[in-house]
Design a protein that fits this description.
This protein is mainly alpha-helical. The chain is about 70% helix and about 0% strand. It has one domain. α14 packs antiparallel against α15. It starts with 10 loop residues before the first helix and ends with a helix.
Length: about 375
Amino acid sequence: MLDQAPPIFSHRWRMLAIAILAMIAIAVFKNAIKPWGMDFISFWAASKLALLGNLPGAYDVVLHRSIEAQASTFDGQMPFPYPPPFFFLIWPFGALPYPLAAAIWIALSLGAYFWAVKRNLPGFETLALALPPILLCGMVGQNGLFTAALLIAAMGQMKNRPFVAGLMFGCLAMKPQIAVLIPLALIAAREWRAFAGAAVSAVSLSLASLAVFGWPAWQGFFDILPLYGQLTAGGQVGWYKIATVFASLRMVGIPALPAAIVHGAVALAGVWIVWRVWSRERDPLFRTAALVTATMLTSPYMYMYDQPMLIAGVAWAVTRGLNEKGLAILYAASFYCFAQMLSETRLINLMPVMPIGLLLLLYRESGESARISALWQGLRMKAGLAR
């Protein structure tokens, strides 16, 4: 995917990557000594219920919570909001003790992410491991590393094996908010073989989950969705934890309707950039940057652990001239948000800063800024002539 030599990063990024990997190792070790309720416990409990033949029970908040309580002293609640195809990814882990399952999950997800970056964004491995979202995923065992690996790997196959790329894209249906813009992008680019591959894998996974787990599992998934709609709209999980424009505005006291309008406007800008870039540009890294950036700005239900995919956007920005100072600003905003979550302080949510910064750069590099400027000048001239 990367068609030019990457820049040489300073040793500071290498030290950050090493520190992040060390902190992840410490978190895994602590969980082995005294299991706690990292996010992975939700996957583990759901997998355990599936192995017991009661997959619909994963969507029963009370039953699911009782399984979580068997594995740790966690006194909160971590429901399971993923569609039944997601079980194909987590199913085996319920057969293992929770601490061991968590350690293997985190190791595999880190390995998959590193492999995808090394294969498709060579030279950016150190920067990829230094991003704060990687630390969050490693500490709580979330799935953002797997989804980032899958999306980056799929983009790496687009040029030579578009149908295979589509098959990989379709697997992202296990987390629909990550896949929401993929059909639009493929249609814009007229990548019909990739579109067909995505349709085949998404439909096949859905039908396979229906055959294996039955309709009650799907019914349970649909039944739990309103709960997550309420959590997102009401901010019960904390506005400082949600990585969206809507959450950032709500955190500083903007009412829900204006916040939703601004979020929608930013999302539409991202959708437009995806259409513009995918319909006119052939550079796969440019396309990937547009897709991952807009994805992080579209859904109101996104968290920092979904942001590892932004490494593709950052890599593209660096190849287009983003210097160390600009990179440091984006990094500082992301790290501040991680530190805020860790300390549970509630000051300001800067999580959308990185994708918005990338969106502005995409807007400039796509030629839209020049086109709109010329259009505006034309309108002003016409208005002057009319007067």
